[in-house]
Amino acid sequence: MTSMKILIVDDSITIRRIISTALKTVGYSETVEAANGKEALAKLENGNVDFIITDWNMPEMNGLDFIKEVRSKPMYSSLPILMVTTRGTEHDVIEALQAKVNSYIVKPFTPQELKEKIEGILKTVQVNTL
Ligand SMILES: [Mg+2]
User: How many domains, in total, are found in the chain?
Assistant: First the structure.
């Protein structure tokens, strides 16, 4: 589980640092980072990403368009995606879920909350592949 490679996508280097530090705290030390959806797609193509944590509001390509692009590729149809954003209205959550994120967390969050979200997603993914 700790060898899982997590792609962190956020236009804020500070937020990326907060997320990667939180992940390390709860046992996930292998991370790669991207500043927007376009960069993230390139990092995905480099391979071996097991899990995506993405922001919504970003320049170049936002998180929602990034997720739609990822889900349009059959090989990534079940790749776990957690959206981390300040956008927490019911409408936003529904739009993200329709784009097929696995789960959604609103900033700010604690490392423990992040861990619980990740583990919740991994359980669902395992159940679905049985
Ligand atoms: Mg942002």
Answer: 1
